Amino acid sequence: MVQTPATGVRLVGVIEVEAAPAALRRSRAGGGAGGEAEAVLDGALAQAGMDVVADLVVAPPAVPAPPAPASRHERRAPSPQVESPRVEVDVAPGESALVLVEGEDGVFHWVFPDELHSATPEIAASDALRRTRGGAGQETLTFTLAPPGESPAASERRGLGSAIVDRLIEPVRIRVARFVAAQAIDLAVARIEGDLVEGLVAMDGPAVGWVAGAAPAPAPARARIEGLDRPARVLLFVHGTFSSVRGSFGALEATPAGRSFLEQARLRYDLVLGVDHRTLAVDPEANAALFEQALAFLPDGTEVDAVAFSRGGLVLRSTVARLGERLRFGKLVFVGCTNAGTHLAEPANWRTLVDLYTSILMAGTTLLGAATAPLVGMVTQQAIKFVAGFVKAMPLVGVEEGRVPGLAAMRPGSETIRRLARADALGTAGPVHVVASNFEPARGAATGIAGKLALFVGDRVVDRFFRDEANDLVVDTASMTDFGDAAEAPSFPLLREMPLEDAVYHVIYFAVPSVAEALHDWLLGDERRAAALPGPPPPGEPAIAPGAAMLPAAVAPPSPAPSKPSPPKASPGERRRSRSAPPEPFPAVPSDGGMMFRAFPDLPGADMLGDGIETAAAAVESVTPPHATASPHATLPPALPVPAAACFFAAEMDSAPVVARPVPLFVTVSRERIVAEGPHAGATMSPIAVSPSQPIAVTVTGLANCAVVGAAVKHVSVPDDAAGLRFQVEGFAPGLARVQVEIQQDGLPLASLLLEPVFLAGSGDKVCARVAAVPDRAAAGNAATLRIYELRQQDGSLLIRYDLSGRGLAETWDKVLPASFSMESFVGQFLGKLDAAYRQSRTEYRLFLARITEFAIDATNQLVPQDVRHALWEHRDRIDAIQVIADSPYMPWELLYIDDPAGGGRENRGFLAEWGLVRWMYNAVWPADTLHLRPDRVRYVIPDYLNVEDRLPQATQERDMLAQLFEGKAAAVERFEGEGQSESVGRFLARNAAECDLLHFACHGEAQQMAVLNSDLVLSGEVTDKGTIAEDLLSSSAVKRRALFHERGSEPSGMVFVNACQTGRAGEGISGVSGFADAFLRPVTEGGAAVFVGALWSVGDTLARTFAETFYTRLLAGDRLVDAVKAGRVACQGESDFTWLAYTVYGNPFARAR
């Protein structure tokens, strides 16, 4: 027995029962049929990547009755408070868990963590107890076995077996399974059947060998039909969902009637074939395309008869429609097929589906004898493995329309069903035969469904989900005979209805001798014999043969769509359907408004959900706030070179986010390109170079109208295959929201993904994703990156998040400012004092510099938490750059001031501008490490102002400086005749900017202090007819519409330098160019520049030229961008104004010119 304390599994409100009931104890003993069935289940879970860490029989503890009152006037003491029975499971980073509950008589029920249920207020109030974090990112998941006060409707939604724990009185067996969490939805769906090899299956010999690729097909098959003097005859088998050819039809081999049919079929037909195919990730039409490819070797005119099971009916009909003109399809047999869909395919019934499948597969395995027929265990194990894989993927899949196209096709009224119901869908194929069953649980004792399992099946499946309509536990009986207008409803002898005495349910059709007999008669022999209803089995032969193989069946959950319309009434002269006992029209599925939500919210804590990804490295989830791990003065040893790995990244959200409900957001890291198309997902198109030895950090931030629920920063090791992280985002109000996903490694940005969901009050489908990713690049050295996020909360408060990371650094802090705080007013006061200082004379400069320094320190203390200041100060000797990634144009982060937090002022390090602060913007493509400054690709815009008072004294010197630095090849942007200068600049930005390495502006700036997003650059102007001068303004909005420095999807290129100089006009002081940073870096064309340099306010033209000249000189000498900026500031610092503080720089701080 697994020791629960050692595995991090704790029981609350229940205790382990040593003297377990025999029905639960039998399989744990390990012998007999029960032991064989147990081995099948354990093997299936293991193959699905589930590690069973606890296997226990539990029951509620005995509760002593309260003492009787001493007298009749005394009130009886209240009963002791009993905790809700639950299981707490510790999971490591990147892991998740599930609990499989087994009740008496083989009722199985999958239990998900509490966050997957509609929690009651009591549960919600105790979330802190249910989901906690331990050391090293460990997490605890809670599985409530009997939710208190749950309504019957909620219990119904939880699944078939949920009743066994609704009132946990009798002992139940629980298996606690941990597994590696996974990645994006499409990848998770594909991996459910990941080890299924698709292709042609030759059904010669024993069923154990019926697998694709076991023989060198189709060469041997082609040899069998070459040289025939008649059309070849082929019998084709089409399997169902969660299955294969061997899984669906292997049971035929285990009964005398089945073996006889197979032997005779191999003699009658030239080839007996199947095609193994995926049934979840693709729809029947895609399956038909695979069949077309697999059967391409067959000559035109080959005669094909076929047998289809469950979902295979839709695949067969799609194949007939696709190949009907080339091949001659004849007799078609549909066994338990979902021709008009199935109720269990409705998303609200998924829980019941997986509980039911697990229960009836295990019941059939015990009945049919895995010990005596190894094929039984092999086939059932594969089926349960697929079911378990789907259970693991259910949190990712949700109820996305079309997300699991192979299952969505089986939903009543689906597009596939409507298409196949057309009158011409089957062409000339026929006749059409059907095997159908109506299973009655009360009569199923001989089939392994008895006792409580029969009661649960009857109550939960027949009564609630099939509304008492005839069914075989998976497919509605009426659906089996409903082909729409494509074929008449079969009547005898084309229809074989299993009598109630045979008690046939969905997964045992081919284990029933009468089914094999019907196949023989219809396909090989006398069809008249098939008209007779099968009587009781011959003496000594049971209705279901012991040792017969199992067949996993064919249905699973798709997405909501309109229910199937009622069949049209036949008019006189039209073909009419007839049968001895015609079925009722397949009932329309009622729309339950309460079900129109994600039936299975995503698994909380499933940061990585994977279907057996053994190579995915464990994720490491960060703890907030984390601690620094490096000494401030430590010398890092040189790392050994590690070959870079190429990774792709994707982010994806629910396509129908609803306010006030956590919405899952998945971030995937993959070694292969991720296909994440559509409005709800975004992915990098090019590989990104990463170091395999360093974890990747992912930060999710709610920028507008939303917030991250739970951890906002998580880490994952670079996987060998693929890995994923799961976050949760909650919208505040209906409307547009913005969610930023930042991906970095070792403190350096890798990719930036911006999702823009439209949260809805109910349901919807609009989510946009824009992608910005880093191309391959070399990593920088000892830099620290400080990311600053400004987030407006639902209550109006402002949250400023500081994330300091780098080699040996991992710090995150939040600063919450009240709703009354106005960043605009705060910055306005700050810049107002700076503006006053700017206007002072040379003699007062140092006095005002000291005053501004004190004010900057006070402002820093208000905005920057003490822990951040301490960390910056502690690591001051190894921080050579600070990267601020923010969206706000208002806050001049360069002017914040860091000094010794201990006081004394003995070593002031100065403004953050002096620390090497370089900015970047959300959702702008991260630039590479290389800048180009080719002389023949340098252009400038330096207006010749018509108004003498506007002329810049240093304008000529600035032209000369550019000519001197760039070999005399720098040229002005061409101005076309009849155009204003702003028009010519706009034309250049749209048509020629991609051929420009440097675009330099030296002009006046005109902007209102708090309206920088609408700032303008003042260009030459024109003389009007009245003799006045009309200003010519270049607006940031015009730049944003037209700038194209590189093609979409390629690396950013080009540098833009804007020197907006002082005009000396009355009333002009601080005027920003932040709007131009956004316009040049994030234009509508997505072809933004790699570097932007501009002044936070108007600067003197002399020092502006000094800064620019020093900056360019150092870049051309090979300095990094951040060092060139520092040098330019130092060159201006000895003068009498604040020009050295004015410049803000956007770009990769470690880029160098080549």
Can you give keywords for this protein?
1154 residues, alpha+beta, 5 domains, eight-stranded mixed sheet, seven-stranded mixed sheet, elongated
Q: Can you characterise this structure?
A:
The chain is α+β, with helices and mostly antiparallel strands. It has five domains: 4-63 and 83-181, no CATH class; 196-353 and 391-531, 3-Layer(aba) Sandwich (Rossmann fold); 613-633 and 643-779, Immunoglobulins (Immunoglobulin-like, Sandwich), CATH 2.60.40; 780-915, no CATH class; 928-1153, Rossmann fold. 26% of the residues lie in helices and 22% in strands. It contains 31 helices and 47 strands. Helix 28 links the parallel strand 44 (1055-1061) and strand 45 (1091-1095). Helix 27 (1036-1042) runs parallel beside helix 28 (1074-1081). It is elongated and about 110 Å long. It starts with a helix and ends with a strand.
Give the SSE map.
Elements: H1 4-7, E1 9-12, E2 15-16, H2 22-29, H3 32-47, E3 51-59, E4 86-91, E5 95-102, E6 108-111, H4 121-125, H5 127-130, E7 139-144, H6 152-158, H7 163-166, E8 172-180, H8 185-192, E9 199-202, H9 219-225, E10 233-238, H10 245-249, H11 256-268, E11 271-276, H12 284-294, E12 303-309, H13 312-323, E13 328-335, H14 350-368, H15 374-397, H16 405-408, H17 415-420, E14 432-437, H18 451-465, H19 477-480, E15 495-498, H20 513-523, E16 619-621, E17 645-653, E18 663-670, E19 681-683, E20 688-690, E21 696-704, E22 706-709, E23 713-716, E24 722-731, E25 735-736, E26 738-745, E27 748-759, E28 767-773, E29 784-792, E30 798-806, E31 809-817, H21 823-838, H22 845-863, H23 866-874, E32 882-885, E33 897-898, E34 910-911, H24 912-915, E35 917-920, E36 930-931, E37 938-941, H25 955-965, E38 971-972, H26 981-991, E39 998-1006, E40 1016-1018, E41 1022-1023, E42 1029-1030, E43 1033-1035, H27 1036-1042, E44 1055-1061, H28 1074-1081, E45 1091-1095, H29 1101-1116, H30 1121-1133, H31 1139-1142, E46 1143-1146, E47 1152-1153
Parallel strand pairs: 10-11, 10-12, 12-13, 13-14, 14-15, 32-35, 36-47, 37-38, 37-39, 39-44, 44-45
Antiparallel strand pairs: 1-4, 2-3, 3-8, 4-7, 5-6, 5-8, 9-11, 16-23, 17-18, 17-19, 17-20, 18-24, 21-23, 21-26, 22-24, 25-27, 26-27, 27-28, 29-30, 30-31, 33-34, 39-40, 40-43, 41-42, 45-46
Helix pairs in contact: 2-3, 3-14, 3-15, 8-15, 11-20, 12-13, 14-15, 21-22, 25-29, 27-28, 29-30
